[in-house]
Amino acid sequence: MIKVLIVDDNKFITHAMRNILEEMDFNVVGVAxxxxxxxxxxxxFWPDITLLDITMPNMDGLECxxxxxEMNSTARVVMLSAVQDxxxxxxxxxxxxxxxxxxxxxxxxxxxxxxLSRALEHAAGKTV
Length: 128
Ligand SMILES: [Mg+2]
Prior knowledge:
Elements: E1 3-7, H1 11-23, E2 27-32, H2 35-45, E3 49-52, H3 61-71, E4 76-81, H4 86-94, E5 99-102, H5 110-124
Parallel strand pairs: 1-2, 1-3, 3-4, 4-5
Helix pairs in contact: 2-3
The structure holds magnesium ion.
């Protein structure tokens, strides 16, 4: 089973994403609510895929992404954010993100779930 870490300061989102991912047969190994905690959980669980929000307190997703890629340059990190700014999206991809998912991902919305599953499949298949 593919191990996934979810990092988002919004607890409703981490809760919903955990449910959605578990229904898709992913193994959600951990949840974190800011970038600092995200790094701690990453080191603890060494997930196959990290789903990472951008706007968070203490340490934002872009900084967290940088630290994760420093620890493991083959880490697969998919950004999950409401941010639409092309510069930020490009920055994430240039910093090593395996994908960028636009929020929201709504449970029961086929299009959203399709986007999610394509992004995760792509990240899981990313060559190391
Ligand atoms: Mg946020």
